[in-house]
Amino acid sequence: MAPSEARKRRVTILGSTGSIGTNTLDVIEQLGGREAFEVVAVTGSANIELLASQAKAFSASMAVTADEGRYDELKRALSGTGIAVGAGHGALLEAAAAPSDWVMAAIVGTAGLAPTLAAAVRGADIALANKECLVSAGSLFVEAVTAGGGRLIPVDSEHSAIFQALEDDQRHAVERIVLTASGGPFRTWSRDQMAGVTAAVARAHPNWSMGLKISIGSASMFNKALEMIEAKHLFDVRPDQIEVVVHPQSVIHSMVGYTDGSVLAQLGCPDMRTAIGYALTYPVRSALNVERLDFAKLSRLDFEAPDEVRFPALRLARTALERGGLQGAVMNAAEEIAFHAFVESRIGFLQMADVAELVMDAMTEWNAASSMEDVYAADAEARRRAGEIIAKMEMAA
Ligand code: NAD
Ligand code: MG
Predict the structure, then answer these.
(1) To 5 degrees, how large is the angle CA 43–CA 48–CA 50?
(2) Which of 40, 52, 143, 297 is placed for a possible disulfide with 100 were both Cys, Cβ 3.0 to 4.6 Å?
(3) What separation in Å is there between the alpha carbon of 273 and the centre of ligand 2?
(4) Residue 165 located in a structural domain
(5) What is the span of the domain harbouring residue 137?
(6) What's the pLDDT at 369?
(7) Does some domain include residue 69?
(8) pLDDT tens digits along 229-282
(9) The domain spanning residue 41 has which CATH number?
(10) Residue 205: its pLDDT value, please?
(11) Does 41 fall in a domain?
């Protein structure tokens, strides 16, 4: 077969309108766009204009919005293009299940779990940005990918770094993995200072430009908490092998320490397109137009121990890892509800961790997930309890 006749790599982008999604389409464009890839499906939610323009620009076969009420709007925007249009949860699952080779899982939150699983069970390679899948469903999610026969390739910058620094035949010699954390905008702030901040202040990340939830999660370090649990499931390490170090420049994206004392790190400018590109063409590295590190300008890299008193999310992640069972799903769900309440100014910044801890402590008996139904049940119960706790906090305020 002549190269031009070779089948193009078929890709699906779940959450194409978000920060990771738009960066993914940028990488696809850089690596040949429609000439090199067949975009099977793009999905979004509220931003119909962007979703439609992406579907047209990449000649996607299908465009789906998670928001059922926006069907007509999307249909109108794509009329005459021949692009199939869908809306709602069922359509999202159909988009994920439509045959493709590679799926970018970049929906935010637990909403990404069912569609990503639908892609995993049919054997697609899963480029995982949505860490909530692993935090909630843990080994069940990994088993679903393995059973489907696809590869699980991390996109989270820390986990991509570890994935790159892991020597396949030396897994037995891994002593520890070290997740770097920027420390977020409140790295040097006292708890008193953090108590009164608004979402607008909390979302301003010093190094990375990202979606709202992960930006707030970087300020509270809840994002790092999720990443500790994500790391456990991705790399099959014990909780005591997972370290966090604050590294304000975000140049070292994470590290692997080996039994001979060597530490391998992956470095780069803070730009998600490097990790996305790596996941797209793995194990081959492609040429990407991203900023290069200039070591002379860099001049110094700083490190400090994380403070679990000012950032209790890290302590909660340790607790969840030690307790095991469904505590990851519980922590994730409670935090998602608390995050929404904070963004709506119903609770304060520090109360997000209080909500998560109260719900986790109340649900320690939920300790065996033998199926996805168990995960969804724990998720729903944690959301319900978090809602009750938040309502009480609002009344007390
Ligand atoms: P974002 O908010 O910018 O985009 C989220 C995407 O999900 C959008 O396309 C949106 O339309 C879609 N979406 C939102 N709610 C939905 C729902 N209920 N059902 C279906 N789709 C829905 O988020 P982001 O920053 O791109 O993050 C996406 C995921 O990637 C998150 O899990 C995040 O933790 C992870 N991640 C992001 C970054 C980053 O740099 N942004 C880095 C590492 C990991
Ligand atoms: Mg990360």
Answers:
(1) 80
(2) 40
(3) 13
(4) no
(5) 9-154
(6) 82
(7) yes
(8) 999 999 999 999 999 999 999 999 999 999 999 999 999 999 999 999 999 999
(9) 3.40.50.720
(10) 82
(11) yes
Q: Which atom of ligand 1 is nearest to the CA of 130?
A: 32
Pocket of ligand 1 (CB under 6 A): 15-21, 44-45, 66, 92, 106-108, 111, 129-132, 156, 208, 210-212, 214, 272
Average pLDDT over residues 181-196: 97
- Ligand closest to Cα of 274 equals 1
Residue 18 CA to ligand 1 center (angstroms) comes to 5
CA of 68 to the centre of ligand 2 (A): 30
Place of tokens 């069972």: 325
Evaluate whether residue 38 is within a structural domain: yes
Q: Is the pLDDT of residue 119 over 70?
A: yes
Helix (H) or strand (E) holding 44: strand 37-44
Residue 22 Cα: closest atom of ligand 1: 26
Q: Is the dihedral of CA 228, 337, 370, 326 positive or negative?
A: positive
Given a contact cutoff of 8 angstroms between Cβ atoms, the answer to whether 264 and 199 are in contact is no
pLDDT band at 370 (very low <50, low <70, confident <90, very high): confident
| Protein residue with its CA nearest to atom 39 in ligand 1 | 210
- Cα–ligand 2 centroid distance for 157 (angstroms): 5
Specify whether the CB–CB gap between 154 and 160 falls below 8 A. Answer: yes
Ligand 1: atom nearest CA of 17 is 9
Residue 6: other Cβ atoms inside 10 A: 8
CA 227 to ligand 2 centroid distance, Å: 7
Task: Please tell me what DSSP assigns to residue 179.
Answer: E
pLDDT band (50, 70, 90) for residue 95: very high
Q: Structural domain tally of the chain?
A: 1
Expressed in angstroms and rounded, the spacing between residue 122 Cα and the centre of ligand 1 is 22
pLDDT at 1: 46
d(CA 172, CA 167): 10
Atom of ligand 1 nearest to the CA of 47: 11
Gap between the Cα atoms of 58 and 265, Å rounded: 35
Instruction: Please tell me the distance from the alpha carbon of residue 132 to that of residue 228, in angstroms, as a whole number.
Output: 11
pLDDT in tens, 191-232: 999 999 999 999 988 888 889 999 999 999 999 999 999 999
What's the mean per-residue pLDDT of the chain?
96
